[in-house]
Amino acid sequence: MVKIAAVLGGGCLLVVLVGCLKQVGVADPVLLKDPGLGLVQNLGKVLFNEFLLPFEISSLLLLSAMVGAVLLATKDPKQKTV
Amino acid sequence: MESLTNTIKLVPLNHYILLCSIIFSIGVMGVLLRRNAIIIFMSIELMLNSVNLLLTAFSVYHGDASGQVFVFFVMALAAAEVAVGLAIIVMIYRNTNSVDTNVLNRLKW
């Protein structure tokens, strides 16, 4: 029962997305106009100029995730394991 | 190799959106269908990566590098989420000896 509902829900999502896409005309081909777009050098320049603050904040996120993971996954020696 | 590169250049943006919609829907169905916590996590990764693919496609389409930088942040967020989630799964496994999410429907041990 749950599986039928899940397939129905997921299928409805796909149908809605594809139906929306059908309304849109065919776009231009995805062409790499600027050949230096995906290069590490240019990407790094964007990352460390425009997105410097989000970059630093993501380091905080990773640190807190690491601390949280270690805190959750280490065995508590006092607690008796079930 | 040259012909392959020329063929890839002809792919319109719609096909990228279609592919990403299909991958995203597979991820949603995986989350809804499966009861194994680890497979649910794999499906969440599938959804995140379909969005990543779409972001890079739009980034190339508009010639703007911001989309590709945003993919980095999505990847960092996915890594953090998986680290915490796997720790939670380990804790659940220690307490209930299974990773089946049906065991958790009472939200207490």
List keywords for this structure.
heterodimer, A: mainly alpha, 66% helix, B: mainly alpha, Helix Hairpins
The end-to-end distance of chain B, rounded to whole angstroms, is 58 Å
Using the coordinates shown, work out and report the CATH topology of chain B.
Helix Hairpins
Strand content of chain A: under 5%
Which regions of chain A contain 5 or more consecutive residues with pLDDT less than 50?
Answer: none
The count of helical stretches of chain B stands at 4
Largest sheet of chain A: none
Anisotropy-based shape of chain B: elongated
Sketch the topology of chain B as an H/E string, one letter per element: HHHH
Estimate the helix proportion of chain A, in percent: 55-70%
CATH class of chain B: Mainly Alpha
The total of beta strands of chain B comes to 0
Folded structure, characterized:
The complex is a heterodimer of chains A (82) and B (109). Chain A is an all-alpha fold and 82 residues long. Chain A has a domain at 38-72. Helices cover 66% and strands 0% of the residues of chain A. Chain A is built from three helices and no strands. Chain A has helices spanning 2-23, 40-49, 52-73. Chain B starts with a helix and ends in a 13-residue tail after the last helix. Chain B contains four helices and no strands. Chain B has a single domain, classed as Orthogonal Bundle (Helix Hairpins), CATH 1.10.287. By secondary structure, chain B is mostly helical. Chain B has helices spanning 2-8, 13-33, 37-62, 66-96. The radius of gyration of chain B is 18 Å and the shape is elongated. At the A-B interface, α1, α2 and α3 of A face α2, α3 and α4 of B.
